[in-house]
Amino acid sequence: MEKVVAYIWAFIFGTVIGSFLNVCIYRIPKGEEIVRTPSHCPNCGTALKWYELIPIVSFLLQKGRCRKCKERISLQYPVVEFTNGFFYLWILYRMGYGTLGILYCLCVSALIVIAVIDWRTFEIPPGCNFFIGGLGAVRLLLDFSGWREQIIGLFAVSGIFLLIYLFTKGKGIGGGDIKLMAAAGFLIGWKNILLALAIGSIAGSVIHITLMKLKNKNRILAFGPYLALGIFCAMLYGEELIKWYLRFCGF
After folding, report:
1. What is the mean pLDDT of the chain?
2. pLDDT per residue over 91-120, tens digit each?
3. Nearest Cα to 22, choosing from 55, 51, 58, 49?
4. How many angstroms separate the CA atoms of 73 and 191, rounded?
5. Which residue ranges make up each domain of the chain?
6. CB 53 within 8 A of CB 39
7. Would residue 31 be called left, alpha or beta, if left means φ above 0 and alpha means ψ between -120 and 50 degrees?
8. Alpha-carbon gap, residue 59 to 75, rounded angstroms
9. 40 strand-pairing partners
10. Other CB atoms closer than 10 Å to residue 131's CB: what's the count?
11. CA 78 from centroid of its chain's CA atoms
């Protein structure tokens, strides 16, 4: 019963953080301040009351509309809140309430912001990459035993991306992708970041080609969302997936 209560609280806390992620997603591309400015309706600017800031619940009670101007509120808000809460629950169920589980929860929040913003703007916020890199530094300081994996992870994929960037003069890969894989590699280690690249590349190829066929999607690929997916999968199931692959290959 105690575990169930703990998981419920993990989900609730995740949705609260998810509410802040929506602020980041909306304001960072606009260059707006994200901490001191009160939450407000993006259409009419009306400051939100406390009861309008309850994750998911407020959206449902208001029927997805602003209290004052009655403009529709984007479905993104409850989706991001629920997704972050669900991922917190998933990570802590999988890894427990240890330091690594908490670091991974914070990382997945940054990955959500990266995925949505990059999907819309083709830019990855530098602050999110620095945040993930900071989580890697915390992990290193708290447990120095895996320093080799983390340091190699810092360069394993980002080094490859940097060469592509230099060879193509910035046309083959974005600088944000380089920094993301450096930061994430520093957090999850070189084996997992290579796996993240493989998963992200496969997912990006399949999904983007499908979208090009079905919805005439632009040929330009926002790689961030797919890399974020790969990083998430590698964080939670990297060891199992690598072992399965090696067995499959006969090693």
Report:
1. 93
2. 999 998 899 999 999 999 999 999 999 999
3. 55
4. 41
5. 1-97, 133-251
6. yes
7. left
8. 9
9. 47
10. 17
11. 16
